[in-house]
Write a structure and sequence with these properties.
Elements: E1 4-8, E2 11-15, H1 22-32, H2 34-61, H3 79-85, H4 88-119, H5 126-138, H6 141-151, H7 158-165, H8 182-207, H9 211-219, H10 224-235, H11 237-252, H12 256-261, H13 273-282, H14 287-313
Antiparallel strand pairs: 1-2
Helix pairs in contact: 2-14, 3-14, 4-8, 4-11, 5-8, 11-14, 13-14
């Protein structure tokens, strides 16, 4: 930047330099802060290669019949998208995913909120209880899935053993081999693993509510149920929205439990969308169609999240 001079009535005036804008300003700042970009370069390169380039290449694959075992990979236009729309097995996986989401997300949030309300009270060993309830969240998912697969075992699983001891069932149940029990079993395992995260987030939301609101409600004669209904739940709406969005996104991407515990069975009753994409890519080696399914999943998640945010802004949630 250079200052400009003008002469008015024999007097010389110096104009302040014009600020740089746009690309010139960006390049100027980059030259001054070059050392920062050196430190950022490794992360930016990894992000560009494994995220940006991967997304672009995956979108490119959707327009090709890309079989990893075939040397010829022809361009097919929108055929993969048409096949996805008319694929009955993919629609079945959508139904299974919606079933899993509708069962796991509300239950996880309800259990997390209930535990958070209890552990927000002044009780002994509160920190210990919070840690114990959060431990399943940090348990490796594969290890937890193997553990629950053993618990659900129809021959020697502990769940059947204790249910029979309590005279709740007369004979062992084949939890993971039953068409009606397999998905509820997966949902139960997911609630056990995820409720701790909801508990921690709800605890943060509860502790952010001003005590003055509860004191004023007590003065007005509101009981515990009234304070919960008119103060706690309304003040937790942003927290609930966050957990709902994160929960739905996570449940639409469920894979590990299905892969370890049921392999999509019995008779595709637990084949979710991501597991179906995995089969298309790594069982049938049709990476073009698998990439199309992945973008279809992204589109559905985008629409669902957008609807939730719209409803929240209108005050309907």
């Amino acid at each position: 930047m250079t200052a400009e001079t003008t002469t008015v009535g024999g007097a010389t005036k110096v104009k302040p330099p014009r600020p740089e804008r746009g690309v010139r300003l960006t390049l100027s700042r980059m030259r001054r802060e070059w050392s920062a970009y050196v430190f950022l370069a490794p992360g930016m390169i990894i992000f560009s290669v494994f995220t940006v380039f991967a997304l672009i290449f995956a979108f490119y694959l959707t327009f090709h019949e890309w079989n990893a075992l075939q040397p010829y990979k022809p361009y097919v236009g929108l055929q993969n998208y048409q096949a996805m729309i008319h694929d009955k097995d993919f629609r079945t996986s959508i139904v299974n995913t919606v079933y899993y989401t509708g069962g796991s997300v509300p239950l996880t949030m309800l259990v997390g909120l209930s535990v958070a309300l209890l552990l927000n009270q002044a009780i002994r060993f509160r920190g210990l209880f919070r840690t114990m309830y959060y431990l399943p969240v940090v348990t490796p998912l594969v290890a937890a899935s193997i553990l629950w697969k053993w618990l659900y075992n129809g021959d020697y699983g502990l769940l059947n053993f204790y249910l029979q001891k309590a005279h709740l069932i007369n004979e062992p149940l084949l939890w993971l081999s039953s068409k009606t029990l397999a998905m509820p079993a997966i949902i139960g395992m997911t609630v056990w693993m995820s409720a701790g995260f909801s508990m921690v987030v709800y605890l943060a939301g509860l502790q952010a509510i001003p005590d003055e609101l509860y004191e004023a409600a007590k003065i007005d004669g509101a009981g515990p149920i009234g304070r919960l209904r008119y103060i706690t739940l309304p003040m937790l709406r942003p927290t609930t929205l966050f957990l709902l969005v994160i929960g739905i996104i996570g449940s639409f991407q469920v894979f590990t439990q299905i892969f370890v515990m049921t392999n999509g069975g019995p008779v595709d009753k637990t084949t979710t969308m991501v597991y179906f994409i995995y089969q298309a890519a790594f069982k049938f080696y049709d990476f073009g169609y698998a990439s199309t399914l992945a973008f279809g999943l992204f589109a559905m998640l985008f629409v669902v999240t957008l609807v939730q945010l719209r409803l929240y802004r209108k005050g309907d949630m």
